[in-house]
Input
Amino acid sequence: MRLPAPRPPLARLATTALLLTSLLTPGAGGECVVEGCSKAYIAGLDAGVAEGATVAYCSLVHRYSQCTDALASTCRGDIYYHSIKKMLSNFMSKYNCSKVLPAEELQPPAPAVGVPPPPTHAHDVCQYRGSDAPAHCGLFGDPHLKTFNDSYMTCGVVGAWPLLNTPHLAIQVTNEAVGPANHATATTKVTVIIKGHDVCGSERTYEASTDALPRAFVDGSTWSGGAAHHAHVQVVEQLPGEHTLITISYINATVAVRKIGRYLTVQVTLPEKLLRDVEGGDELQLCLQGCPVRELLDKAGIASAVAMSKDKATMLCKEYNVTDYYLDSCIFDLVTTGDQSFRIAAQAAQKDLWEHDPIGAQRLLRNCSQPPCVWDINSSFQNPYHSRALLILALVILIVNVWAER
Output
């Protein structure tokens, strides 16, 4: 006797249907536009993040939930919106994400005491509404550079160098030699300039050095544009004297500056779309073009005086769970300087990549096996359009199967 075919899981069918509804019917609820949030979630799945109780998947769901939270005011009466919110809540509970994710990632931004947050307006020009993927650039260690196009390199670049210069944001770093016996340098000063916007805030400058990591801009302010509890530009002290975060809402940009030991690290994340305005120009920007050829360092033979054996450096770096290029960079820094604070810098740089560009981290960090980088290392980056087509096809097949069994 032929056994009946098993019924498709209703939860999976409902999930797929809701996601496709939000993608294929943008703006169905008036000003309620959930499409951008859904696209980011789909992109994460396409990149190989598997559903399960992992940091990678829980972070993807948590970010999806945070994105939809920002639409609460305009989506109040939208049935699709509330269905997605319920689905995300179920996922967070099912996979125990409150325990899986680090506590700091779950911590919501604290509003001013006694001041309710203002309503979100879909057409507010000071809130970035694009859904394109983030681009991430970072500089850390002796120094090691990750460009927006995912190239990694170790550079000399002594003195002042432009990291980025866009119509809205400019970042400059100053590097000094870490010792007389080799050509390696490290960052001793970071200058961030947020250029003025006609509506969203006036110009602000932030300066960090080896002497201090300020909690405010150079003029003493901590925000610009909007209101203190809902600023369009703001600097937030994440960890006193060690970690500062600058956010610019109208371009969805984040700049993280850390002071680790005697030196600084800087990471910047912003939408890929905004880079098109500055790509192809003649001006040197390390985040875009990388270091000039003459400034590239050969990690295999740069140190004329070894400060630490490679075996010891490898052991010390692996204690901090850094992998891939971040492990190689950590080993290089310890061998050339003997300064163990550089392994903290490598760990922080890898953590910042994971937090600010988890999809990029999934693609680049192929050897991660422990938090904060738990994922299937055999997954491959897929074309999101092909995956979305397969998702639609899967939904049609599931619906047909359910209908045939009724």
About this structure: DSSP finds twelve helices and twelve strands in the chain. Residues 108 and 306 are 45 Å apart (CA to CA). The radius of gyration is 23 Å. The first strand starts at residue 134 and ends at 140.
